[in-house]
Amino acid sequence: MTVFTHHDPLTLRLSLREKVAYGMGDFGSNLMLCIGTLYLLKFYTDELGLPAFYGGIIFLIAKFFTAFTDMLTGVLVDSRRHIGPRGKFRPFILYASVPVALVATAQFMANDFSLTVKTALATVLFMLFGLFYSLMNCAYGAMVPAITKNPQERAQLAAWRQGGATLGLLLCTVGFMPLQALFTTTPSLGYLLAAFCFACCGLFCMWWCYRGVNERYVEVSPDHHKPSIAKSFCAIFHNPPLLVLCIANLCTLAAFNIKLAIQVYYTQYVLSDIHLLSWMGLFSMGCILIGVLLVPAAVKRFGKKQVYLGGLALWALGDVLNYLWGATSFSFVLFSCMAFFGTAFVNSLNWALVPDTVDYGEWKTGIRAEGSVYTGYTFSRKISAALAGFLPGIMLTQIGYVPNVLQSEATLAGLRQLLFIWPAALAVLAAVTMGFFYKLNEARFAFIIEDIARRKKSAGNTPADAPTGPCPLPHYK
């Protein structure tokens, strides 16, 4: 079933109010996510007293677990047959955001249990956070094709989403540690109260998103299409543009998360000024916001793929310059701004490209499955996040990191390599992948949308040529 509320979906314009509401969704989710991405490993090592190796193992286990809960979310979304007035996706945003906020706060609770119990408790809490976050955030991301079919409006929604995510990351970077530092005598309490404040703000923003967006094109999969985790994997390998995007995103998200996890150590021990992190966050996230604002115009002029590749080039260049000449606070902030400016285009277009692959999948197979496609994509993101959380913990151990003491020269050199060389190399690998293998350009996408509309018009909105056999090997027609 398809519900159309506009005579020409390709020309529908969304209101500014709805775009802002959609952006608030990623602002809120990132307020709750980034406090863990940025500071949870440091909380584990410096407050809970867990070895960095243990922190890496916790990240690895929890993120691999949530990779599969993302798949489960896709199954739940695509399994819905009776869609109420709240829509197909919005109820997940409404109800799952409450436990996300609660668990995000509970992760920063200090305790005096044994090392084994501390590790087990931290792992369970992180896994619960991932489960509820999957239910909330995967539905939020998969909702875009139900909001609009206009590719320019999708690009703008992606820009608003990335703008919200950037503001959330900026606020976490600039505000969390100063808020935590107010409790100098009890730093563990500072972590808990700071996490509580950010979680409450995030919950409010998710509810704002729920109330402000509309699902105009709600589609229910036919009864013979039984969604499953296996079909989510199949959605990736039967959809060449999605497969390429997953591989590129595996690289870019790992690079970005490694940077976020290591920069707090770098500013404290290499530059000897942990408060510089707030200033760096202010300027670099400001550069990201500028980049996000430029995304729609840049895409209109050059196309999504070219803008994506340009962002990767700026990102890699900024990291290489920082490794060579980023030994001072000024140069570190300057080159970080260049790198983060490049990430704005990459991270924004990640979300603008996914809805295009949904339409490609429908055109190729006759079956539309936003949940399976989106969660297949987020599966690759969670695998990347698992590696990005695991590697810093392992590498901190390998380079000889010891909490709250002066670090050796070898350790300082290792921190520089972790923060700059690894992300730059991954950005280059992503650029090669997208440059040579991603073929879904604007002209091809416009043809696909028109062809889908013609099929539905001639077949009474029922795909007549939907294949029912197993997924063939990926290829382009």
TrEMBL record:
Disordered, as annotated region: 458-477
Membrane topology: Multi-pass membrane protein
Transmembrane segments: 20-41, 53-77, 89-109, 121-143, 164-183, 189-210, 242-262, 274-295, 307-326, 332-354, 385-406, 418-438
InterPro entries: MFS_2, MFS_trans_sf, Na/Gal_symport, Na/Gal_symport_CS
UniProt GO BP: carbohydrate transport; sodium ion transport
Protein name, UniProt field: MFS transporter
Taxonomy, superkingdom: Bacteria
One CC-aspect GO term: plasma membrane
The species this protein was found in: Siccibacter turicensis
Lineage start: Bacteria, Pseudomonadati, Pseudomonadota, Gammaproteobacteria, Enterobacterales
Subcellular location: Cell membrane
Molecular function, one GO term: symporter activity
Alphabetical list of Gene3D superfamilies matching this protein: MFS general substrate transporter like domains
One Pfam family per UniProt: MFS_2
Keyword list, A-Z: Cell membrane, Membrane, Transmembrane, Transmembrane helix
Assigned protein family: Belongs to the sodium:galactoside symporter (TC 2.A.2) family.
